[in-house]
């Protein structure tokens, strides 16, 4: 009898007479994401959708209460703008490599937007989601809570939509080895319509109700079930709190996927700003704003000026009060941003050491892929604008493939060296205490000089040098001549 009772507890069904109510376990999964009042979260997002070029974007997001501040840093190479269809990097276009800064104040329904380095900014007044909000801006607290991207919804916004679902819904919950499995089944109002959707959530309460997996299905009138989406999440502790680490959603029917990787997260620290407004951008009073107001009767555009603290006045009012503010701060801001840097190009574009901004790349085969990718970008002609063709013919597909083949060959040569270094590192770590005095002596003797390269580092550097020498061989004679003439030969 005891064994039977134990077996029954291994798979326990939870619920009450009203199976349309959302289970408490599900609610807690969303509430857990709203516990921090302030946060700084950095994440990397990759999207792949049929017919559209894949996108890679990196974000730093500040959170204070219900307000959010996004810094869109572009892809791994610092390039933010690309052609949506072809994926071509739009280097050479204004602000292509400038960070896009966006602040959303939910209470005032204001969205501030600015490209870093610009002399002005935009202000949109929106009611909920609007076309002025980029679809790439995701509240990082929502990552992994649902398969489809929720854009700027908060976890509470999502939960309210679940709670206000107008369709007949049935929830069931089971527990298997402390893991909760929730099943949501939604039907249409017409009882004769046998079609329905099914969502299955796997939740771990021991990780602060982390959602581990989501599977979504559509069932047709014949009972055939089709798997339309699957989300897999991993979690780890950030700043002492269980949080999402990675999330990947795959959509088998329509194709495509969304991937997120959290690179940094910190919560409720004293230094976190409590108010999010353009003061964080060190924008002084007097900076020009293009205001966009949405009314029931349509749209109205006007010019305005920033006056600090998130406030603004219309242009005619500014003309009356501008003497109250320090004009030198405004002039310094314009001077600093107008000539700060050319935002058409990434910071690594003209590195004189030919490293493309990858410090120590010769000793790190993991960085060689980034080097080749930047070499390809650097040898691709610049467009005149987003809608025009390149000025000159660029690398052909077979040339790009040849460059990647060279990388593959060089990595193959480096693999035994990397493995030897890994084993040596494991051996050293096992003898850490004995090796410490010698390491300290070596550090002391070399304190005033650059450290010598190990044999393995020298071997890796030699392979990387061959990589650099082989890449230009994929160029045609005409391309090599053009590169030499323009001083861009790498």
Summarize the structure.
With 490 residues, the protein is an alpha+beta fold.
Give structural notes.
β3 (52-64) and β4 (67-72) form a beta hairpin. The protein starts with a helix and ends with a helix. The longest helix has 34 residues, at 397-430. α2 packs antiparallel against α3 (155-163), α6 packs antiparallel against α7 (397-430) and α7 (397-430) runs antiparallel to α9. The chain is built from ten helices and 17 strands. The relative contact order is 0.11. It has helices at 2-10, 24-33, 155-163, 315-321, 327-338, 368-378, 397-430, 432-445, 455-470, 477-486, and strands spanning 11-14, 38-49, 52-64, 67-72, 100-105, 110-115, 121-125, 169-176, 179-187, 196-204, 210-219, 225-238, 241-250, 257-267, 288-295, 298-308, 311-314. By secondary structure, the chain is an alpha+beta fold. The model is unreliable at 1-17, 384-392 and 433-446 (pLDDT under 50). The protein has a 17-stranded mixed beta sheet. It is globular and about 75 Å long.
How big a fraction of the residues is strand?
25-35%
Mean pLDDT: 83
Please give the largest β-sheet.
Answer: 17 strands, mixed
Query: What is the strand tally?
Result: 17
**What is the number of helical segments per DSSP (H or I, 4+ residues)?**
10
Q: End-to-end span in angstroms? A: 78 Å
Shape: globular
Classify the helix fraction into a percent range: 25-40%
User: Structural class from helices and strands?
Assistant: alpha+beta
């Amino acid at each position: 009898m005891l064994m039977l009772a134990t077996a029954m507890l291994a798979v326990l069904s939870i619920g009450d007479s009203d199976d349309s109510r959302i289970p408490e376990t599900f609610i807690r999964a969303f509430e857990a994401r709203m516990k921090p009042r302030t946060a700084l979260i950095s994440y990397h997002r990759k999207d792949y959708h049929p017919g559209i070029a894949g996108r890679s974007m990196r974000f730093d997001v500040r959170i204070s209460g219900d307000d959010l501040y996004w810094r869109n840093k572009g892809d791994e190479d610092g390039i933010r703008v690309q052609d949506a269809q072809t994926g071509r990097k739009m280097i050479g276009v204004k602000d292509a490599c400038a960070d896009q800064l966006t602040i959303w104040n939910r209470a005032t329904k204001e969205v501030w937007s600015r490209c870093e380095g610009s002399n002005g900014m935009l202000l949109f007044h929106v009611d909920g989601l609007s076309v002025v909000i980029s679809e790439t801006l995701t509240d990082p607290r929502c990552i992994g809570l649902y398969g489809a991207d929720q854009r700027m919804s908060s976890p509470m916004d999502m939960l309210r939509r679940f709670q206000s679902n107008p369709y007949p819904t049935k929830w069931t919950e089971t527990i298997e080895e402390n893991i909760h499995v929730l099943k949501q089944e939604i039907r249409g109002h017409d009882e004769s319509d046998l079609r329905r959707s099914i969502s299955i959530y796997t939740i771990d309460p021991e990780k602060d109700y982390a959602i581990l997996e989501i599977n979504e299905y559509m069932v047709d009138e014949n009972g055939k079930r089709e798997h339309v989406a699957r989300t897999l999440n991993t979690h780890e502790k950030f700043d002492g709190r269980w949080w999402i680490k990675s999330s990947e959603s795959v959509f088998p029917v329509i194709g495509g996927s969304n991937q997120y990787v959290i690179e940094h997260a910190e919560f409720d620290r004293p230094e976190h700003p409590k108010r999010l407004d353009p003061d964080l951008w060190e924008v002084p009073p007097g900076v020009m704003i293009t205001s966009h107001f949405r009314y029931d009767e349509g749209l109205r555009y006007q010019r305005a000026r920033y006056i600090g603290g998130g406030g603004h006045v219309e242009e005619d009012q500014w003309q009356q009060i501008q003497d109250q503010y320090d004009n030198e701060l405004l002039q310094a801001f314009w001077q600093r941003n107008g000539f700060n840097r050319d935002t058409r190009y990434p910071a690594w574009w003209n590195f004189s050491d030919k490293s493309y901004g990858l410090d120590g790349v010769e000793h790190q085969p993991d960085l060689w892929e980034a080097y080749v990718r930047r070499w390809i970008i650097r040898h691709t002609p610049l467009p005149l604008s987003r809608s025009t063709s390149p000025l000159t013919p660029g690398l052909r597909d077979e040339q790009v493939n040849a460059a990647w083949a060279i990388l593959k060959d060089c990595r193959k040569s480096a693999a035994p060296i990397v493995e030897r270094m890994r084993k040596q590192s494991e051996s050293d770590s096992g003898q850490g205490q004995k090796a410490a005095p010698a390491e300290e002596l070596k550090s002391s003797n070399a304190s005033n000089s650059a450290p010598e390269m190990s044999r393995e580092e020298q071997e890796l550097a030699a392979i990387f040098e061959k990589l650099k020498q082989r890449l230009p061989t994929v160029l045609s004679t005409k391309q090599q001549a053009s590169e030499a003439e323009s001083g861009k030969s790498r």
